[in-house]
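for the recovery benchmark. tokens below, seq after
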């Protein structure tokens, strides 16, 4: 696509040249017109002033004062045309900035109820939820979706791509508001809760590609709770199985990971992200394909970290590989935005429905090499069936 991109760039540069040429022509015509008009006024004044001077009806000083004033106005108008060009360029460059400045958030950043932490259990309930993304209002993603996740239980969401699994996770964090129905946490509608408190203290989110910042490992983990002490950061890293590899770096926790964590491996990035989530001790933990991009050895280590961090928390797992969620308390199968099946791994296999079809499909893919799964090493003492 190099040639095509060159053509596209050349076309955009040509458009920019054309626009600037038109702007230059406009400035030139304005300056020429204003100069012609003022010079005409001056010439007319000199013509008429000569006869007035001859008859002593006009003094020479008055005539010179007028000519100086006319020249001053001429220079000012010339500068005005240049400033007008700058104004046009500035408005064009700032149009997108002004567009974002004028935007008003549909979901407030702060404000609402806060459930006391010592009374919070972490039960999540989807009550006949319907939802469509604002950019695609006519395409309904969730249709009358109902699901209850009891406190302290592990629930897995599976299904074909585009079924609405990741949308469920985003709605729990209230990145969007539902179009119909309600989502409740411990019986309280999340629309009545403080969004900053919900995202900052209640929900921990770990996805397939965590975002790390170009700063130290200590600060990347502390991002989960800015007021945490260094010892608390280290304890979170130990829970996430990250302490050992961090200490092995020459600068330890002061090691800079680079933009988006380019200087550390995928498994190390994921464990840093887990430590960040654990630092705020969330009641609800959402794992969205958290290990699907890792190799077998890194996946086993991250699994061990996840095995430790899910204890005592409400866990929502989103996964495509069905072999990784067999030990979940409940497996919910989604299809076309609806809850199609729900039950345990063995129960759904015996049911012979969508879940059983997905298992057979993945087994066929494994045999043909489309989704080859490498056996876990024995370096980590964790059930091979528990992963994300």
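predicted aa per position
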């Amino acid at each position: 696509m190099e040639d095509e991109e060159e053509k596209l760039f050349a076309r955009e540069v040509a458009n920019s040249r054309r626009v600037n040429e038109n702007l230059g022509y406009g400035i030139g015509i304005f300056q020429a017109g204003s100069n012609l008009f003022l010079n005409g006024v001056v010439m007319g004044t000199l013509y008429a002033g000569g006869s007035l001077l001859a008859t002593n009806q006009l003094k020479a000083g008055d005539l010179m004062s007028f000519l100086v004033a006319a020249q001053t106005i001429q220079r000012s108008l010339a500068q005005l045309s240049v400033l007008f060009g700058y104004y046009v360029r500035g408005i064009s460059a700032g149009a997108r900035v002004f567009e974002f400045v004028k935007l008003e958030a549909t979901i407030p950043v702060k404000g609402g109820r806060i459930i006391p932490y010592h009374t919070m259990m972490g039960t999540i309930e989807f009550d006949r939820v319907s939802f469509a993304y604002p950019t695609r209002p006519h395409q309904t993603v969730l249709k009358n979706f109902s699901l209850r996740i009891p406190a302290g239980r592990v629930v897995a969401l599976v299904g074909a791509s585009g079924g609405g699994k990741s949308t469920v996770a985003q709605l729990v964090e209230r990145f969007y508001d539902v179009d119909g129905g309600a989502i409740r946490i411990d019986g309280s509608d999340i629309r009545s809760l403080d969004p900053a408190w919900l995202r900052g203290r209640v929900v921990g989110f770990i996805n397939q590609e965590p975002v790390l910042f170009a700063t130290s490992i200590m600060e990347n983990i502390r991002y989960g709770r800015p007021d945490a002490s260094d010892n608390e950061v280290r304890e979170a890293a130990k829970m996430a199985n990250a302490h050992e590899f961090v200490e092995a770096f020459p600068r330890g926790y002061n090691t800079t990971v680079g933009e988006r964590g380019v200087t550390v491996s995928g498994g190390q990035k994921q464990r840093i992200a887990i430590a960040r989530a654990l630092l705020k001790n969330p009641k609800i933990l959402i794992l969205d394909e958290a290990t699907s991009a890792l190799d077998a050895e890194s996946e086993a280590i991250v699994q061990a970290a996840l095995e430790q961090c899910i204890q005592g928390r409400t866990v929502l797992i989103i996964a495509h590989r069905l072999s990784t969620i067999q030990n979940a308390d409940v497996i919910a199968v989604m299809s076309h935005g609806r809850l199609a099946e729900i039950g345990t791994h063995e129960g759904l296999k015996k049911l012979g429905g969508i879940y059983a079809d997905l298992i057979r499909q993945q087994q066929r893919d494994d045999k043909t090499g489309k989704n080859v799964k490498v056996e876990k090493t024995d370096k980590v003492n964790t059930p091979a069936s528990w992963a994300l």
